[in-house]
UniProtKB/TrEMBL annotation, chain A:
Pfam families: ABC2_membrane_2 (PF12679)
Keywords: Membrane, Transmembrane, Transmembrane helix
The UniProt record lists the keyword Transmembrane helix: yes
Organism: Streptomyces daqingensis
Stretches that traverse the bilayer: 56-75, 101-129, 150-183, 203-224
Protein name according to UniProt: ABC transporter permease
TrEMBL record, chain B:
Protein name (database record): DUF2092 domain-containing protein
Compositionally biased residues, Gly residues: 87-113, 365-374
Disordered: annotated segments: 80-117, 293-339, 365-384
Biased segments, Basic and acidic residues type: 295-314, 323-337
Entry-linked PANTHER family: SPORULATION PROTEIN YDCC (PTHR37507)
InterPro entries: LolA/LolB/LppX, Sporulation_related
Species for this entry: Streptomyces daqingensis
Top-rank taxon: Bacteria
Transmembrane helix as UniProt keyword: yes
Key word Protein biosynthesis present: no
Keywords recorded for this protein, A-Z: Membrane, Transmembrane, Transmembrane helix
Residues annotated as transmembrane: 16-37
């Protein structure tokens, strides 16, 4: 069966998705991508992602982490006791009992090394390979969107998931923190005290910074996803790469490559809690993420636009 | 199986070329940009070394803030239980820190309770790389923060009180100097801020100049750009001290206002500098007033410390800006009583401190020869371990052991005397022989 036949056969599919160019075949190759054409595709992609039970389960796990941490800290300190627990445990955990807002920072610090990127790896890895595995990729391709735009939409959808996942952690942490612990003025890492509203703003900025930190992994996952037709294989590879990179980042003998690992500056989000904000590592993190996005994004594009879709 | 082929079958290699090109450009940028950035040596009018030193001494930068990168590579062996030893070197280098001269290790004793003790932070600074953020507003208000991963240690001095806040352990130390003490010599305020200020290029430069007045050759060696500012390079080389382990000290001095911006201490052995403190960002504007305010958050562990009479002296000793015996050659006046035997042999760069360690302090070092209570338990294994990080030395004093780092060496003789100095092994042996006579 040739491409033209397929296109003709699924013309109504294309028309349903877009309504403008039911012929499909030449659309993407020629015309400039316009927002009007990409938007419905993007919307359906995001809706698809968030309607899946798997996605909801992942978000549920992420939401449970801050609640569990909050309850554990609450039980452990027994309410009014002083919380001078020493320096152990994840970042910021000693401040939670004094200010519930710190649960947001603790939760992000706890989920960032593994939970958050794992969910992103699942979603990114599945984005193209899952469609191929389910046999729906060919229908998407004959739609007039074109491969480049489809890839962009997939990447944008993954980024939306990154932000949503981070916000789920942050919002549940904030809710738990407010319920279980006192809130009020926030003492920053540098010892400067700022009003609670300022603290909330910084928490939001941190959530965005964390979501941006996942860009590199999202691009990497997308690239892996274009290599195979098996969603599971793509997810496993992405998460496996994540673990490998995390391990390499802890080996001191390999310190020469550490600055180029996409996980290396992840904890730099804490620099937003200094006064004045220490931008150096945040900017480096942004640079590393942009580099990974450029390299693996373009690699994914090169692969996806030149490969034969067999499923 | 049917295939959907790409619409543009050609140009596959071209497309894959894009990610490769991106990687190449990134690698080139990483490799070239620092090289290009550091190559520009500014053109500045000639200046004599004498003038430059005067300029530096006269500089009284009232307000400034900036970021300092401190890296120290002392070449300490990574031995567990040698913390006391590293404290010793740290103290010497920064002219501060715990004077862990007694092998018994004083650093730990002082640090129990609150973890916000400044001397422990100084010890940490003595190895590896650290980022400091500093702000100064006149003599009464300073702030030094050690940037850590997801935590920060701040030393904030404002008027007659000082706070140390460790966000990692959520603990704070509050030091108050009595009012009259401040007015006396304008001074305890100054002392209060020394806790961590010693790690900045300014203080390091001051210590070196003070210590070396006429025992070093000082020259101007070109110009450099530091933190985006034009600077002269001052080179200080030890003179008349053949055994010194110090090759040279380089100080980059701001061409405009004479503030030291970079401090580099290179060892004779070559290689990486032993200590380097450099401003990566500097701003001579007035820091905002809120910078020096501190209010401990609710629930923070606060340790109160009063600075009067005895307590003051204690703090004085702890934050350690008494004469640095290794470098300055000044006999430490306020050395703790149990180390009554400290005196200094030689002066200037070749100075060696001699200390009679209290009995039993060397118990942990088997194979030190006779006269030791635990001498009977010395096994060949312990001997081997000792050999791995010390060298045997012989002289008029009998047998001894030399513990080497890249800068400071220590010789322990069998009668329990320890000679410490920034001099080579030969220098130590000579000093020990001279002392024996």
């Amino acid at each position: 069966m040739s491409r033209a036949e397929l296109a003709g056969q699924d013309g109504r599919f294309a028309a349903g998705a877009d309504g403008t160019n039911p012929g499909g075949a030449g659309a993407a190759a020629g015309g400039r991508p316009s927002a009007r054409r990409v938007w419905p595709l993007f919307r359906s992609e995001v809706l698809m992602t968030f309607r899946r039970w798997r996605t909801l389960a992942l978000l549920g796990v992420l939401a449970a982490v801050p609640v569990l941490v909050g309850i554990a800290v609450r039980i452990e300190t027994g309410g009014a006791d002083d919380g001078g627990g020493g320096g152990g445990g994840p970042a910021f955990i000693s401040q939670i009992t004094n200010n519930g807002l710190f649960l947001v920072f603790t939760s992000l610090a706890v989920t960032l090394p593994f939970f958050l990127p794992m969910t992103v790896g699942v979603v990114a890895g599945d984005s193209v390979a899952g469609e191929a595995g389910a046999g729906t990729l060919r229908y998407l391709l004959v739609a007039p969107a074109g491969r480049t735009r489809l890839l962009l939409v997939k990447f944008a959808g993954t980024m939306v998931f990154c932000l949503a996942a981070t916000l789920v952690v942050a919002v549940f942490a904030l809710g738990t923190g407010v319920l279980l612990f006192p809130v009020g003025e926030v003492t920053l890492l540098s010892g400067t005290t700022v009003p609670f509203s300022d603290g909330l703003l910084r928490a939001l900025a941190i959530a965005v910074a964390v979501a941006l930190s996942l860009t590199g992994l999202a691009a990497l996952g997308l690239f892996v996803s274009t290599l195979t037709n098996s969603g599971i294989a793509a997810m496993a590879t992405t998460v496996g790469l994540l673990l490998t990179v995390q391990i390499v980042d802890t080996v001191p003998q390999l310190h020469a490559v550490h600055p180029y690992l996409f996980t290396h500056y992840w904890l730099s989000f804490a620099d937003l809690l200094r006064a004045p904000v220490y931008w150096e590592e945040l900017l480096r993190n942004a640079g590393v993420q942009a580099l990974y996005a450029a390299v693996f994004g373009s690699a994914a594009w090169a692969r996806f636009t030149t490969r034969d879709i067999t499923a | 199986m049917a295939q959907i082929q790409p619409r543009t079958p050609g140009g596959k290699a071209v497309r894959y070329g894009i990610p490769v090109a991106v990687v190449g450009i990134a690698a080139a940028t990483v490799g070239l940009v620092p090289a290009l950035a550091s190559s520009g040596n500014p053109d500045l009018p000639e200046i004599s070394a004498q003038k430059l030193v005067e300029k530096m001494a006269a500089s009284d930068t009232e307000h400034m803030s900036g970021t300092v990168k401190v890296s120290a590579d002392l070449g300490l062996p990574g031995m567990p239980g040698m913390d006391a030893g590293s404290g010793k070197q740290g103290g010497g280098l920064f002219g501060g820190g715990p004077h862990g001269d007694g092998p018994g290790g004083d650093g730990k004793g002082g640090g129990k309770g609150s973890t916000a003790q400044p001397q422990e932070k100084l010890m940490e600074l003595a190895s590896g790389e650290h980022t400091l953020r500093v702000a100064t507003d006149g003599p009464d208000r300073q702030r030094v923060s050690v940037v850590e991963e997801a935590a920060e240690y701040s030393w904030i001095h404002n008027g007659n009180e000082a706070w140390a806040y460790d966000s990692g352990s959520d603990s704070a130390l509050h030091v108050v100097a009595p009012e009259d003490a401040v007015s006396k010599d304008g001074g305890h305020g100054g002392k209060l801020h020394k806790g961590l200020g010693n790690a900045t290029p300014q203080e390091a430069a001051r210590e070196v100049l003070k210590a070396t007045e006429d025992t070093a050759s000082v020259s101007v060696d070109g110009t450099a750009q530091v933190a985006g500012r034009d600077a002269y390079q001052l080179v200080v080389k030890p003179k008349g001290a053949p055994h010194s382990t110090v090759d040279s000290v380089r100080i980059a001095v701001d061409a405009e206002n004479g503030t030291p911006l970079k401090f580099t201490l290179s060892p004779k052995g070559g290689g990486k500098p032993v200590v380097e403190a450099v401003y990566t960002k500097v701003d001579f504007g007035k820091p905002s007033a809120g910078t020096f305010d501190f209010k401990p958050p609710k629930g923070t562990d606060v340790t109160e410390q009063k600075l009067d009479g005895k307590a003051l002296r204690e703090h004085h000793g702890k934050s350690g800006h008494h004469g640095t015996s290794e470098k300055g050659g000044k006999p430490g006046k306020d050395v703790r009583p149990e180390l009554s035997g400290l005196n200094t042999i030689g002066k200037g760069w070749g100075a060696v401190a001699e200390l009679k360690a209290p009995d039993g302090a060397l118990g942990g070092l088997p194979g030190m020869g006779g006269g030791e209570p635990e001498g009977g338990s010395k096994s060949s294994q312990a001997e081997e371990m000792l050999d791995s990080f010390t060298e045997k030395a012989e002289g008029d004093f009998g047998q001894g052991r030399v513990f080497k780092t890249r800068l400071v060496n220590a010789l322990m003789t069998e009668d329990g005397t320890v000679y410490v100095g920034a001099v080579s092994k030969e220098g130590l042996i000579k000093a020990a022989e001279a002392a024996g006579r």
